[in-house]
Structure formats: C-alpha cells, structure tokens
Design brief:
about 260 residues, alpha/beta, eight-stranded mixed sheet, two-stranded parallel ribbon, globular
Length: about 260
C-alpha cells in the first residue's frame, strides 16, 4: 500500500466527505478541486446515480444480482445495502484492486443472511478473471446488473475499454443490464475543465485517467437497448423525485438492457 502517492479510491472518498484517505490524497484532491471545482458535485452526483439506478433495477425491473466493478471505498448506501433492503435475497459481487478497498472488504461483505455478498480483488483490465470468480456467487443464467461507475475512464485505450464491456456483457444472459457513468470533456456540459485537471492528476496520482466524448461513451452500449432517459448527465438520470433540480455535471450516466 503506497501512502505517499494519491490513489483514486481514497481521493474520491475525500471528495464525498469520507475519512478513509491520507494527507497526500487530501492535497491532490484540493488541488484538483481548485482547478475544477465541480469535481465534488460530480463525485456526489455519481453516488446518487448509483442509488437511483440500483433502486430502479431492484424495484421496477426485479433484478436480484449485481456485479459492481470498481466499487471504491464503502460509504453509506452501498450497492448491496440498497438492493438487499428491497430484496433481502439479492446477491452482490464487488470488484476492485485497490489495497485500501481490500482492507475494507469485510465491511462490504456484511449483507443479509437470505442473500450473498462477495468481494473480488481483480483489475478491470482482466475481465476473464472477474467473470470466473464472480460465477462462484452469481448465476449468469439469470439477469445480472453490471455496474461500471467511473471505472472505464481508467482504461485509457478506447478499443480496450469497449472490448472489456463487450466481454463482460457477452457473459451475462438476455435481460441483464449495463449501468455506467463516465466523465466527459464535452464543453456543453462544462467538461472542458476536466482536461487540465486530469493532466495534473496523471502527473501526481494513480491510476491515470481520461475523459471521453459522448459519442465514445455511447459506443459502450453497442448492441444494448438504452432505457429512458438515455445517455444524460448522471445528475439528471431519473432525478424527477429530487427536491431540487440537480445541476448538470460533465459526467454521463445511463442504464441499458441486453436484448
């Protein structure tokens, strides 16, 4: 565990008000926030998107299996807590390769006795290992919600990122879902500031990150059917019930079903 270099899971934890971070994470987090102040709004919006998406899939679509790739550090209302409040029998597998997340795996594994939770120490670049180990807990013959929130931005090559999604989604059955968020440099969403902030991040933190255009992000859903409202800022996805209209953030979010 390298506590001298800022790590994404810890900095993200800092941005959403968590305590599982070090001084170096706080330093880099503050510098990025000074350069790109909306980053804290993005972090919160991404977390709220997760909650809405899991509730929607568990309540309205009857999903009982979730594969959460790139879970990050546990906070309030993790995927298994939301899903198992609705359906205690839900089964959730978390995937991450950050040693700090691994140290918190016991927290992630506390679920309902009727359901199951598991944690896989694996890298998103290795979908074969993820699928092999997830099959010990999940039944790929039944629908699975594949959660990829803020993770493909750490796969710098577009073709490799698309291939990872293709391989994972080819392993799950018809009626499964892809839930995805991804940062964009789209200036119409205020994303131009991502570019210098990510340049600073890549020089001072790990792992390196990239933003993508709406067109490149939409390509991850090839062969899938986007659910309403489609590919939109994650803060606006099915946010009608929010007490106030959430701000637009330069982070796309969408949910799609496999036909």
């Amino acid at each position: 565990m390298n506590t001298g270099v800022a790590q994404n899971a810890r900095v993200w934890n800092y941005w959403i008000g968590g305590r599982d971070n070090y001084f170096v994470d706080q330093q880099v987090g503050e510098q990025v926030a000074d350069m790109f102040p909306v980053i804290r709004d993005i972090a919160r919006a991404d977390r709220w998107f997760l909650g809405r998406a899991v509730r929607f899939l568990a309540e309205e679509r009857g999903v009982r299996q979730f594969l959460d790739i790139g879970t990050g550090l546990p906070t309030a209302d993790n995927t298994h807590q939301i899903a198992q409040r609705i359906a205690p029998e839900a089964r959730i597998v978390y995937v991450d390769n950050d040693p700090v997340v691994l140290a918190h795996a016991r927290t992630l594994l506390i679920g309902t006795p009727e359901g199951a939770t598991d944690y896989i120490d694996a890298d998103v670049h290795d979908p074969a290992t993820i699928l092999e180990r997830a099959a010990r807990t999940l039944d790929f013959g039944r629908p699975v919600a594949v959660m990829m929130l803020g993770i493909l931005n750490f796969v710098l090559d577009n073709d490799e990122a698309r291939e990872i999604v293709r391989r994972v989604m080819s392993a799950v059955c018809s009626g499964s879902y892809l839930v995805l968020t991804h940062p964009t440099f789209d200036p119409g969403l205020g994303g131009a500031g991502q570019i210098p902030a990510m340049r600073f991040w890549n020089a001072h933190a790990r792992p390196p990150i990239t933003a993508r255009s709406a067109q490149d992000i939409a390509a991850f859903f090839e062969g899938l059917e986007l659910l309403d409202p489609g590919l939109v800022p994650c803060s606006r996805w099915r946010a009608e019930a929010e007490p106030e209209t959430p701000a637009v953030v330069p982070q796309f979010g969408a949910v799609a079903v496999k036909p």
